[in-house]
Amino acid sequence: MSTQTAPADALLDLLTRLADDDLLLGHRNSEWTGMGPLLEEDIAFASMAQDQIGHALAFYELAHALGAPAPDDYAFLREPNAYKACHFVVAPIGDYAFSLVRHYLYDTAKALRLQALTRSTYAPLAELAQKLAREHKYHQLHGRTWVQQLAQGSDESRLRLQSALSEAYPMALGLFEPTPFTEALAQAGVQPTERSLETQWRTETESFLSGIGLSVPTADATPYLGGRRGYPSEYLLPLVLEMTEVIRQDPQAVW
Amino acid sequence: MAPDAPIGTSLDPRMNRAGLSPAEGFAGAPELDQFQTYQVFHQTRRGEQHVHVGIVHAPNPELALLFAKEQYARRGQAVNLWVVRTADVFATAYDDDDMFAPATDKSYREAHFYKNREVIDEFKRRMDALADRHFRQQQPAQPGALPTDPRRVTVKGRSGKKPTIVIAKKP
Predict the structure, then answer these.
(1) Distance from B129 to chain A by nearest Cα, in Å?
(2) I want to staple B37 with a disulfide (CB 3.0 to 4.6 A). Which of A156, A166, A248, B86 is the partner?
(3) Is there a contact between B68 and B83 (Cβ–Cβ < 8 Å)?
C-alpha cells in the first residue's frame, strides 16, 4: 500500500508524457494515410493512429483536471521544449518496415504500462487505463502479426525488418527515460519505476523477436534520451510546426 | 495546389517528403498485383447468424482477419468475424440461371402470411430479455436448485391484423 500520495506535479509530469507520446506518434503514423502499402492496411493504420490521438486526448483531460491548460491548448499551443515525448516517437516515419517496427515496440511498451496503470493508486488513471487497454489489444495484435509475417516472409522482408529493428531498438529505450518524478510516482503507487517497466519490456520483446528469427541489438544499445526532460530531438520542432500549422493561423477559431 | 507553388511541389508536406514527382507521371502498379481476396462475415450478437459484409485483400487468413476487423468492425457493431478464401466458395454459374426461373405459379409457397414476423420476433426478443432479467432476480444463487423458467409467450393473430401477444406465467 502506498505510504504517501503523489504530488500534483508528479502526476502532471506522467500524464503529459503519456499524452505527448500518443499524440506525436499518432500524428506521425497518420502521415501514412492515403500512402499505405495497400488499401486495407492503410485504413487499419490510419484508424489506429486516430485511436492513439484519442488516447492522448483522454490523458490531456486528466492533466487538465489537475491544472494543465485545456486539451487543445496544451496539445498544440505549447512551447516545443515543453513537450515530454521521447525521441523515439518523434522520429520520421521512415519506410514501412521502420513504422511497423516502431508500432510494435511502442505498443508492447504501452500495453505493459497500461496493464500496470490499471493498478494505479491514482483512481482516474487506473480507470482510464482499463478502458484504453481493451482498444489497445487490437493495436498490439496488429503490430505482432505484421512483424511476424515479415520476419518469416522473404529474404528482402526479413532484411528490411532487421535493419529497421536495429535502428529502432536503441531509440525505443528512450520510452523508459526516468524523470525527476519517477521515484515519487513509484513510491506513491501511481506507476512502477521506468526501470522496472523497461525490464519487462526487454524480456517480452527479446523473447518475441528472437523467437521469430530476428536479432535484437540489446547489449550495445545506447538509449536515445532527453525527450522527457526538455531536450527534444531535431525532429520535434518541424513536426510540431507542421502539426500546429492550422491552429496557429487562428488559435481562437471555433470549429 | 496554390497558384504560386512551384511545379512539382504539393501543399501536402508528405508528398514533398516522399520525393515523388507527379509531373513525370507514375508508372502505376502492374496489373493483378494484388493479394487474393477473402469474403468477410460478421456477427452482431452471439447466437445470431453471420452475415456477409464485404471483401478484403490479404496474403493469408491471419492478416485477412486483421484487416476485416478494421474495415468492417471498427465501429463496434460486431462480436465475431469470419473470413473465407474467395477461391473456396462454390458458386452457380450465371449461365445456369434457368434453374432459378419458376415455370409455374408457386405463389402458394411464398410466406405472405408472415407479414408481422419481424414485429413478433422483435417483441419476443424483448420479452426474452425481460424474462431473463426477471428470472435472474428471482433466483438467488442456490447451489443445486433447479430453476423454473417463468416465461411463456403466445402470439395470436391473423395475417394483416395487429397480433395479440399473451404472456402467461407457468402454473
Answers:
(1) 27
(2) B86
(3) yes
pLDDT, tens only, A18-70: 999 999 999 999 999 999 988 999 999 999 999 999 999 999 999 999 999 99
Q: A38 vs B57: CB contact, 8 Å cut-off?
A: yes
Using N-to-C axis directions, what is the helix angle for A96-117 and A194-211, rounded to 10°? 130
Instruction: Report whether B40 contacts B53 (CB < 8 A).
Output: yes
Which of A18, A91, A93 is CA-nearest to residue A56? A18
Q: Which of B57, B62, B70 sits opposite A44 (nearest CB)?
A: B70
pTM of the predicted structure, to 2 decimals: 0.79
Query: C-alpha angle B70/B71/B73, rounded to 5°?
Result: 65
Q: Quick one: closest CA in B to A30, which residue?
A: B14
User: Looking at chain A from residue 149 to 188, which residues have their Cβ under 8 Å from any Cβ of chain B?
Assistant: 149
Copy the grid coordinates of residue A159: 532484411
Cβ neighbours, 10 Å, residue A161: 28
Q: How far apart are CA B84 and CA B82, in angstroms?
A: 7
Give A 224-243 residues with CB within 8 A of chain B: 242
Among chain B residues, CA nearest to A242:
B13
Which grid coordinates belong to A125?
488513471
Q: Residue B106 and residue B102: Cα distance in Å, rounded?
A: 7
DSSP letter, residue A7:
P
pLDDT tens string B108-164:
777 666 667 788 888 888 888 888 887 677 655 555 554 455 455 566 666 556 666
